[in-house]
Amino acid sequence: MYQSLIRPLLFKLDPEKAHYLTFFFLKNFGWLSKTFLPKPIEDQRLEREVFGLKFKNPVGLAAGLDKNAVAFQEFADLGFGFVEIGTLTPKPQPGNDKKRLFRLIEDSAIINRMGFNNEGVDTAVERLRKNKGVLIGGNIGKNKVTPNEDAVNDYKICFEKLFDYVDYFVVNVSSPNTPNLRELQDKEPLTRLLGELQKMNLEKPKQKPILLKIAPDLTNNQLLDIIEIVKDTKIAGVIATNTTLSREGLKSENQKETGGLSGKPLTKRSTEVIRFLSEKSGKAFPIIGVGGIHTAEDALEKLEAGASLVQLYTGFIYEGPKLIRKINQKLLEKV
Q1: In this prediction, what percent of the chain has a pLDDT beyond 90?
Q2: pLDDT value at position 104?
Q3: What is the required cofactor set for this protein (predicted)?
Q4: Checking DSSP bridges between strand 82-88 and strand 101-104, what pairing results, if any?
């Protein structure tokens, strides 16, 4: 139903308008999904325990789709085992000028230059207070106007305000759409940032897992630095990967748009990064695999490369909720 009816209608609209229309229907007519879509698979054999948390299944929603914690319950009802909200910043910000979201249909891809558009961490907290059992990741970043030398304070504000309402944190320094943000991936500033957050974490009665989301464009030497940083700061793990600046092999006319590319063109590279981190670290920390998962086989490839969990974004937009079910079915076949 999604690919034959819903997606063709949505793809006739501007991508950002389609996004908000989807959220409107999820919030107001989410009950229809229970009537017309296959029931999500619930099976104890799909449960995973990773960095001290129990996930009902290993397929999550990646950050960027439910930035403002608007529909986390509705996404969980579609079958996701966990939902990552954000990226959130201390203050609300509109993001970059429109048009800023582009489909590359021939490539099964998306380019976005949203720029951390969000309603601010306080608004998200108010919505998360109503959470009834959805496992939530909180993806945090800095405001565009905050200079990099003060970025740590933005992350600390988000960490403190979200602490009681999320199950794990994700430090996003890898989006290509906030000026100079990726400079925070360099070894010295990144070690300082993660160290400050871990210091806050250790002062809590019970700690929350902190993960780092990295870009697929890092070199092998930079990835080795990431392994060392994870070890030194004792964070819980890594999310691999964010969107890419690469445009290699694209066919669509929108390929020249600036921003981060996600979808099928990222499948191979994100898996390479997962495998490299897993092998070179000796499987020292959990990895959440994301990037170009459009089939159950794509998900299994990332899990076999060393990921403990996977997340969907662009693949979910192109393939629909059935993809969650297909991945979990394939996993059960291997049990």
Answers
A1: 92
A2: 98
A3: FMN
A4: unpaired
Binding residue numbers: 63-67, 87, 112-116, 139, 172, 177, 213, 241-243, 263, 292, 313-314
Residue pointed to by tokens 């994301």? 290
Instruction: Report the length, in residues, of the chain.
Output: 335
Distances (CA, A) of 78 to 9, 136, 296: 20, 15, 16
Residue 1 clears pLDDT 80, i.e. is over it: no
Distance CA 262, CA 314 (A): 6
Q: How far apart are CA 316 and CA 295, in angstroms?
A: 10
Q: Does the pLDDT of residue 34 top 80, yes or no?
A: no
Q: What is the mean pLDDT of the chain?
A: 96
- Looking up residue 188, the CATH number of its domain turns out to be 3.20.20.70
Find out whether 87 and 63 touch, Cβ atoms under 8 Å.
yes
Residues of the chain with pLDDT > 70, as a percent, come to 100
Other C-beta atoms closer than 10 Å to the C-beta of 301 total 21
Largest CA distance in the chain: 53
How far is it, in rounded angstroms, from Cα 295 to Cα 279? 24
Whether the pLDDT of residue 38 is over 90: the answer is: no
Report the binding-site residues for substrate: 67, 112-116, 172, 177, 242-243
**Total domains present in the chain:** 1
End-to-end CA distance of the chain: 29
Tell me which of 175, 270, 278, 281 is the catalytic residue. 175
pLDDT digits (tens, 9 = 90+) for 155-164: 999 999 999 9
Domain of residue 99 covers 2-333
Cα separation, 266 vs 109, whole angstroms: 9
175: annotated active-site residue: yes
